[in-house]
Input
Amino acid sequence: MTRDQLLDAIEALRVEFAQEAKPLSPESMSRYLGKNGRLRLLAKQLASLPSEARQAVGQALNQVKTDIERTFAQQATPEANEIDLTLPGLAPQLGHRHPISQAIDSISAIFTRLGFVRVRYPEVDWDWYVFESLNMPPTHPARDEWETFFLDVPDTTQTVTYDERQPRQRHPDLIGGKLVLTTHTSNGQVREMERVQGQPPIRMINIARCYRRQQDATHTQMFHQFEGLVIDRGISIPHLRGTLDYFAREFYGPGVKSRIRPFHFRFTEPSFEVDFSCHICAGTGQIGGEKCKLCKAGWHEVGGAGMVHPNVLRAGGIDPEEYSGFAFGWGVERTYTLQPGLNLDDIRLLYSADLRFLRQF
Amino acid sequence: MNIQIPHQWLCEFLETKVEPSELARLLSLAGPSVEKLTESEGDWVYDLEITSNRVDAFSVAGVAREAAAILRQAGHEARFLPPAPPPIPKPDSRVAPLPLPQIEFDQKLCRRLTCIVLDQVQSVATPAPLAKRLRQVDLQVHQATIDITNYLCHELGYPCHAFDYHKLMALGGGFRIREASAATSVTTLDGRHHHLLGGEIVYESFSGEIIDLPSVMGALNTAVDEKTSAILLLLESIEPERVRWTSMTHALRTTAAQILEKEADPELMSVVLARGVELYQTIAGARVASPLFDDYPHPPSPQAISLSLAQLTSQLEVELTPATVSEILAQLGCQVTSLDSDKLSVTPASFRPDLLAPIDLVEEIARIYGYHNLPSRVMATALPLNPPSTATFQLESQLGVILSLLGWQELYTYSLVSAELAQASGFPLEAHLKLKNPLSSDRLYLRRSLLPSLQEALAANPLTTDLSVFELAHLYHPQTTGLPIEELHLTLLSRRDYRTVRGDFEALAAKLFLPPLEIRPEQPWANQAEICYQTSKLGSLGQLPSGEIYLDLILGEIAPLVQTHPSYQPLPKTAFHRQMLTFTLGQKQPVGDILAAINHFSPLITQVTLDSIYDLNYAFKLEFHDPSKNLTSEEVEEIRLALIQAIESRYQAKLVGEAGHQDARLS
Output
């Protein structure tokens, strides 16, 4: 017999055995496994094959033999192999990663795929990085919007005349400053520009604890933000849109889109509000003829974005005539709670130690 | 800032047939965001959010101008109808002229002041159509003399103030604009008494009384009431920073202050005054009784901005024709002239002081064109190849995953703690960073240990007897100068026993391929030990007085020791022998010493572990191995007997059972 004929014969034997009437009789055992049984006869044929063909045929034969032997063995002691398959599982003691950690991991992974580098900057920082370098001069009303916590330490700021186009004159290295708890992760913008010594490209993602003087069902004194910053030659609004769309799709699922609308921040120009289309009503604002209760006309407002203001680039030692960039930032908690089906409407629970809550994640 | 605008009122300044719902949608996409569209008294009312840089849009007319530009760009027919009240008439000959109060103007404090006296003002009810509009926008309805000023401000976006003319004149016949001195006081229209700090801009009558906190709130001593027969209608443009400071300091956050603390356009004052005179004439029967006062020494002269169309195209990645660009900017009140094929000269209107640079114009063009109409694509620019060298993000994630699989619950607790928790850190309270303006006393200090927070978390779950929690977060160590040191810690706290916690730590160390770490207590039996590697201190572990076991690691110290893979050891070709030896040890005999002694006894003892403890009996599992040859039972027995003798004599230990042969050869 040739190699292929022998393989066919082995396959035929396997099929024939599978069709044997159950329970299997002692005769069938000797017919397959006996001294002059079918398997032994086939094995004898192996010797006539060229050595290079023997391995494959031998393996096929061994497999069939093992299966046949197991079938006879199981038939001989049927009860020994039986278990109560209706028994419930014995749970191992599993812990749980916090939902914020899970969200941070997902967010980081998405931006890492786009070549962003994750960084970390101080949570207690000079007001220069939090406000002034971001085009918010001292006493500017825009600072009110941030509900800032100040540290009870001496204010070392020395008064200098403010020149909006020369923000670096007021760098804390030169004139000291006030210590604040960072109200947003945007303090990382100028710090990142300084880290790369004013030499783009920058693709930064900064995720950190932030602090604001507010507390209710949708605000906690401490929360997490993530901040994206991209700076290079020729960075445009369509690049921001592309990045936001990519994030929306990856984080919330296919079909979810982003939308930017006009807004105002001192540190971006133009500035945008960022919305994601509602995954519950597929962006229609309607479910079965009723108004979708989770979104606003098919959209969720998630955060802010914009093209980096020339003064901010200058503060980071980057020439706005040569480079442009975009930045975006919003709450990790808000982003996470919009996950389909999560239904979490009180973010204060995230900072509780209530195991009834945490063990659900 | 939010403003409510009824559709019919809007249509007095906007000619369009577009339905309110569509108008709301388009406004939100390209202009002020419509947060709500509700029905009120037979009309639709828009609730719009106006951003702080766009005070020019904080009025019915301002929104109408925006709407016209947006609707036209979206392909709808629309036209802005600018407010055009009749010019202010000369003093009415039917009434005796009333002199203007004497005004000592100070151009350092006030850019412009304009006013006029109106006589024969009748105290009448506000006409129904006006009252309805005021109700629709949630403004209170009083009487016409008062309501007209609120109506004017809402309609045109510039606040004005009506003084009772006779009350004002009775206080010396005039006033001066000045900075208040400390220790003066004023009672405002709402009846509240304010002690001034000094530095507030005030109108002070010639008799020395403060009659107004201009642009913030009027004073009670010159307030209009039912008996008022003549008013001084006045508008001013005070230094915005002072308006804001006065308003914030005295908690008088009036609409007037919120508008005038921003860059409200002083040019608008003439139109508002003219419209005011018109309304007082038609509604309250007023007659103009004085000439117009208008001190405006330095009207602004907006600067032209040069806009490059090529630059615009590179920002938007859409090529707009010069005609489209000009049309958009003109709709927003800009004057546009073409300089050459690429450049336009754009002079913004006086009400748009926010337009200063080409990028500001790019924003205006892009938003009116519609951000949603721009392309969307990820940038194909160079990738940064220089991540921060100290990043530990991957390790942090790995730690969280391993610990949760080992049964530990991750927590996020507040970095800000109470005085009680701060003190529990072991550092004195004054050695903590403290907030200057806390929101609550339980969030006052930046913590220097995670343990008190985790203890609090455990205490909140008293019924979970085997609870184990951990947190990865910063500690904040103040420095004499400069920023505090923020040190990332991984802290674990458990109600499980020491061996279980330490076992988890050892498993964690194994998964991270850490080198052998040393647990160094000050003395063998103690409640705290340092975790060390060579000369570095990586953290600590121990038992709290409450019985819980803790472990605290400094991430910056651990990170450099973490490996992504082990050093491969060739697979052994010779057999292992494993044996169990059980010794009875003395009270408080440190087991670590016995383990170390066994480990170091012979190079052929390749592993020793503590298997079980029963009273003072400790069972050790030993592994014998020689990589160069198979050990014989006799060779193993020889080492074993010598080991037993050494342990018994050195540690006053006693082997449990016979010292005879207990071989169990494994592969």
Remarks:
- Chain A touches chain B through 85 residues (CB under 8 Å).
